[in-house]
Amino acid sequence: xxxxxxxxxxxxxxxxxxxxxxxxxxxxxxxxxxxxxxxxxxxxxxxxxxxxxxxxxxxxxxxxxxxxxxxxxxxxxxxxxxxxxxxxxxxxxxxxxxxxxxxxxxxxxxxxxxxxxxxxxxxxxxxxxxxxxxxxxxxxxxxxxxxxxxxxxxxxxxxxxxxxxxxxxxxxxxxxxxxxxxxxxxxxxxxxxxxxxxxxxxxxxxxxxxxxxxxxxxxxxxxxxxxxxxxxxxxxxxxxxxxxxxxxxxxxxxxxxxxxxxxxxxxxxxxxxxxxxxxxxxxxxxxxxxxxxxxxxxxxxxxxxxxxxxxxxxxxxxxxxxxxx
Length: 325
Fold this sequence. Notes:
Blueprint: H1 2-5, H2 18-60, H3 80-111, H4 114-127, H5 132-159, H6 176-200, H7 204-212, H8 217-228, H9 230-246, H10 249-254, H11 272-279, H12 286-321
């Protein structure tokens, strides 16, 4: 009876005020509005690009994707050569940049002494701030001549029996290979910076525990550091791929702007972004403008498909890391 008659403990003091509830509502409203604005912006871009490309879509239909000729005088347009050029240059750049970026990230996060880590990391980050046109000019005056005089003959002497490495003896300066190297330089800072932050974020207890169990530094990196963040590494590589797919100015300056494409990467070529940037202002007819916008629509679809594939890959890695099959 005494226990039941005991007075109940006083409730907790009321700490939330009316102003706090208003702040919660404003936060929710602002973040929701920002998300909606983002969705509307993407929808508006897609709608405007589709509207601009619609005249060419009605004329050329899906055959535009596998037709090669691009003749503004005869109003004959096709995207095949530009799609191939975009895929070759972008994926070629990623094949070179991905291992280099991962190596840079591992060196700066796991191996470099503190006195070296800061200046090298700063220089790599500063490379991302160099304008595309400057990198393109450097590619014209420095990289392209060096490539034509030294790299092409060297690679052709060993790999010339492979069609994509043939014709290096011609010493052509504006080539697909030069564009690949320029794109590699442009995406390395982005990918390596993300990889470095991912590797730094791996809990030190996991690394120290691996070393304590007798693993070498290489075994620790291979079995602990990289598997812990491989989903993020894939996302970093895909982000670099997206940067390469959409680059126009630097590629236009060094690729040669030539079709039809040859089988060798030591020949001139063209990409979707380069063709749009190079011809849009000087288009001679409405159907040519629409065909150029059609190219932009194709590039938009390629970018979206690439990002969707990257998200699926990342989810798969995360599922496996948390114990899935």
